[in-house]
Amino acid sequence: RPRVFSGIQPTADSFHLGNYLGALRNWVPLQDTHDCLYCVVDLHAITAGHDPKVLRQRTRVAAAQLLAIGIDPERSILFVQSHVPAHAELAWVLSCITGFGEASRMTQFKDKTVKQGSDRASVGLFTYPVLMAADILLYRAHEVPVGEDQRQHLELSRDLAQRFNRDYGKTFVVPEPYILRDTAKIVDLQDPTSKMSKSASTPNGIIELLDEPARSAKKIRSAVTDTGREIVYDPEQKPGVSNLLTIHSALTGTPVADLEKQYEGRGYGDLKKELGQVVADFTAPIRERTQAYLDDPAELDKVLAVGAEKARQIADQTLRTVYDRVGFLPAR
Ligand code: AQP
User: Fold this and answer.
1) ∠ CA(233), CA(239), CA(242), 5° rounding?
2) I need a surface site. Which of 51, 125, 186, 198 has the fewest CB within 10 A?
3) CA atoms within 13 A on the CB side of 66
4) ipTM score for this prediction
5) What is the pLDDT of residues 193-252, one digit of tens each?
6) Rounded-to-integer distance, Cα 71 and Cα 321, Å
């Protein structure tokens, strides 16, 4: 079966609906057709400053949420990135075939640097996309389910795979992005021109999977909507309303055109109120299941240890081939 790899950073106390609708919800059905590896990417999470105690907790919360949405550790390999040293080791090799200018063109780094100021941005943040390439290439993944914001990074992964294969002989699979068109970019509730983001959005701009229903409903009620009164899908002219329609449609499975009909002649308030309920119905069981996994951290850590062991077996083999191809003396 073709192989899938994807990762998510433990950079917040909860995943948000952008993460879920853009990427995570694809992860679950792919388990039926692909061999899947899903990773909590804690190495990536230290690129922008962190508190060690908080990171440790968030890593468990991230893994618990993945189990809660339906990642099945019997069928998929679920693990934590720092448990598999080959990620950092391959990243070093790949960084040596990445051009400085090429890395400098990554727009996410540029965006984050503008926000943080270049003195505060770390070299780790700069080389983040190279580590991401290592994550994917180590497992020779064919497909990578991510949101639109990761498209450029994935392009770099493809370029690096092709370059390595050309220079050292065929070693890596060139991965394909797997991006769902309709929900590739969920936007910030308060600023519909930006993506909903764990680190960049204000708390009112994001809907968290683990939020209390009343809190999510309040955020949705205060979402920025657009001028005019009609509820129609028009991301250019009405990005706020369109975002709410996208979320509604993705969670209920009702086509956007049907929602437009349903809300004909009704106001934004109705849409927001009903969406609050839809979100509450969707998130309540996820919150409950996440809590159940968190109530038994020893069991959770065991699941992650088993995942890491399986991941290491694949990753170490790829790394050995890479080390051999670049000319490192075998360690005996
Ligand atoms: N707003 C979004 N719409 C659709 N997909 C999204 N993703 C993130 N935001 C949206 C997808 O979620 C996956 C995991 O994201 P990540 O943890 O790697 O971090 P990110 O892409 O940088 O997302 P955030 O929320 O903005 O995190 P921070 O603030 O920590 O950097 C990815 O597949 C991503 O595409």
Assistant:
1) 30
2) 51
3) 32
4) 0.95
5) 999 998 888 999 999 999 999 999 999 999 999 888 899 999 999 999 999 999 999 999
6) 30
Q: What is the pLDDT of residues 269-315, one digit of tens each?
A: 999 999 999 999 999 999 999 999 999 999 999 999 999 999 999 99
Determine whether the shortest distance from the Cβ of 129 to ligand 1 is under 6 A: no
Residues 6+ apart with CB under 8 A from 293: 63, 64, 67, 68, 299, 300
Say if ligand 1 is within 6 A of residue 196 CB: yes
Q: Treating both helix axes as pointing N-terminal to C-terminal, what angle do 297-326 and 268-294 enclose, rounded to 10 degrees? A: 90
Question: Which sequence positions are flagged as catalytic?
Answer: 112, 195, 198
- Which amino acid appears at position 290 of this protein? T
Question: 242 a known binding residue?
Answer: no
Q: Nearest CA to 312 among 302, 300, 301, 304? A: 304
List the Cα angle 97/79/205 in 5-degree steps.
85
Instruction: Please state, in angstroms and rounded to a whole number, the distance separating the CA atoms of residues 220 and 212.
Output: 13
Rounded-to-integer distance, Cα 45 and Cα 60, Å:
13
**Exposure class string for 46-77: b at 16+ Cβ within 10 A, else e:** bbbeeeeeeeeebbbbbbbbbbbbebebeebb
Cβ proximity of 328 and 150 under 8 Å: no
- Residue 18 Cα to ligand 1 middle (Å): 7
Q: Does residue 204 contact residue 219 with C-beta atoms inside 8 Å?
A: yes
pTM of the model: 0.95
CA pair distance 56, 27, nearest whole angstrom: 23
CA dist 43 and 23 (Å) reads 19
Scanning the chain, the segments in alpha helix (DSSP H) are 17-19, 25-33, 42-45, 52-69, 86-95, 100-104, 107-116, 123-138, 151-168, 213-221, 239-252, 256-262, 268-294, 297-326
Across the range 252-281, mean pLDDT stands at 96
Residue type present at position 330: P
Find out whether 204 is annotated in a ligand binding site: no
Under 8 Å between Cβ of 151 and 179:
yes
